[in-house]
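Next up, sample data.

:::
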Amino acid sequence: MIEFTRILSPVDFSESSTRSLAHAVALARWYQAQLTVLHVVPTFEPMPIRGDLGQPVHITTPLTREAVVAEMRRHLDVVGVLPDAMLIAQAGDASSTIVEQATTERADLIVMGTHGRRGFKRLLLGSVTETVLREAPCPVLTVPPHARADSSDVVTFKRILCPLDFSEAALQAFGFALDLARQADGTVTLLHVLEWLAEEQPRTFGRFDLQQFRQQMIEDAEQRLHALVEGESQTWSAIKEVILFGRAHREILRAADANAVDLIVMGAQGRGGVDLALFGSTTQQVVRGAQCPVMTVRGAGRA
């Protein structure tokens, strides 16, 4: 059974990170996990700032580490008191520091927002979140701006959507989705999207029958989904199998909205595997567009 024992929550004090911190607190309570809250700043040292032409250079002093930790405690108390949470303020590059912290403490899960503060002190902007998704040593739960931020609720995921392209990472995600649903006595919808000829009606060209080939693709996908589900006990919940034609990220987002899912669980790498090919074309779009949290899972053995 999946158990998150060490959860890392990067924050930048934005509204988005407040929502993600609330989810992290609720998950830490549910799993009785150790929560680490991390805030990254460029530096704690005084910095020279050049003025306009002819103006002197000014020295600005950033907040002290103690002041940052105090602000973290204030935000944590707002979303839900968790006395044993570790509060860490670090100086450095945001994305690399988050990944390093997750690696050092052997985190089981990173929980972070998809949008953050703008300007010099930005942390959770898309570029940082996406870098963490590509390089994190553990699953990452991204919380969108519209997600409910109520840490008083027990976080369970009863309606889970699991897109499958049968890649190694997707199969890992499938295992996570089933286990999370078991814990909530919930439902898993397995979704496979066929993108080939998605935007047009199948036609016949000479001796090549596109409609017949399309039907063969559907039957092959059905067989592969059945093979995955076969042997899994369905007494604890329903496992639905859905096959759609269309652009993968669009159909995933539509299915998530139509089924009012609590969570999308999907792989971070596609079948190509080169530089997280699926992430660039599908997972990235889902993380950016989802109205519910998205958990991305890397393939086994990937660091």
Q: What stands out?
A: Residues 159-297 form a domain with the Rossmann fold fold (CATH 3.40.50.620). The chain is about 40% helix and 20% strand. The mean pLDDT is 81.
